[in-house]
Amino acid sequence: MKYERTQKIEEYILEHKTVKMEKLCEVFKVSPNTIRRDIKEILKKGTIEKVYGGVTVADNSTLVSFKDRKIIHQNLKLKIALKASEFVNENDIIYIDSGTTTVHMIDGLKNKSITVFTNNLNFIIKALPYPNIKIIALSGSLDRTVNSFVGKESIEFLKNLNIQKAFMASTGISMKHGITNASIKESGIKKTAIKQSSEIFLLIDSSKFSSLGLVTYAQFEDIDFLLTDSIPKEYESFLKENKIKLELC
Description:
Elements: H1 2-16, E1 18-20, H2 21-28, H3 32-43, E2 48-51, E3 54-57, H4 66-70, H5 74-85, E4 93-96, H6 106-109, E5 114-118, H7 121-127, E6 133-137, E7 141-143, E8 148-150, H8 152-158, E9 163-168, E10 172-174, E11 178-181, H9 184-195, E12 197-203, E13 215-218, E14 225-228, H10 233-241, E15 245-248
Helix pairs in contact: 1-3, 2-3, 8-9
């Protein structure tokens, strides 16, 4: 119960940006001492910070727009995406996550006959010239900050699917907090896509190691393949322990 409560408290703070401690006691119907203990646990994650009389979203948890993220490490992202495309076979049914790395997979998939489920608007647009790629878009509303479709409709739709391979993106990963993302709205979709897929591929460039997004949407044991350009030395044995196959691009 404590774990679920602290998660909900964190989500509430992230949604409302700045919240007084008294308000948290009122919303979650717990004592000030309980709230203080829960906040102490959440502070360790780095997503929030204390201010006078309450808490606020940490400065380093700001969601970077799709436009700005698109130009960061673009060459590395293209290499990683092309490597990921090599794991896709003819007639595969796959999921393409939202993100500025996964969108480049179209360059390696354009000559394959496959079915793609996705909420990634930019991938959908790039796939338009290729009738051999059957696109099934998730329902929901368009979040223009991340150029993806989000909402409960998307999650409910995914729950009915059996997907062979999911190609996921991440804002940051760490050994302590797992696979994280900056968008709260997308986290439920990502979790469901992983649950409904047989194999999970995580696509990240090396700048994402030991970085932290707002929400943890998966643990390392959920991932089958990690595709990146390089990894810190301390992660090598960690990946082996979690039986994750590493693909350097």
